[in-house]
Structure prediction request, 214 residues.
Amino acid sequence: MILAFLNQKGGVGKTTLAVHVAAALVRSQARVLLIDADPQGSALDWAASRSVEPLFPVMGFPKPKLHKEVSAHIPHYDYILIDGPPRVNELARSAIMAADWVVIPVQPSPYDVWAAKDIVDLINEATTYRDTLKSVFVINRRIVNTAIGRDVAEALAGYDIPVLKTHIGQRVAFAESAANGSTVLENAPTGPASKEILALTEELLERMTKEATV
Prediction:
């Protein structure tokens, strides 16, 4: 299964989510590969700053032929996650064409809701050629104990792409883990950030399983 984390708006937490969902999948003994398709190389930087054994391999491939090259890795992994580029371009198109699922992180602000149109249009264009392609929104960096996440979920309903029930909060723990190449699952496995990541991963897996049986 190939999941691409994409949004043309920078700073929405694509890398954070891709890294942490990959780590959560590894906890269930899955074989996971993370592909950094962002020219900025944030996932590669995260892996390079890690001081202990890597949880999973991270490969840099910010090239528009990603969808052609990724197939060689499918037999070796249960899940391949793609950390996509921060704008709509040929790299984003290639990541979408490679993916079975596109996960779209959206921050809880009207600007992010409006900006989501570009990536949604790109996904709709891709479904013309790949009608099995699925996509979901995930509300990321929600300010804890506010209703704004719910309000944004209602606003996103106009895009005809499901919004996951699990929201990820704006938590210092994510920034602290990124600084040393670790994850919240390792640093504070029972903390609120870890619980959110595990719940998000479980919801993704349930949705993928459900769609596979339809």
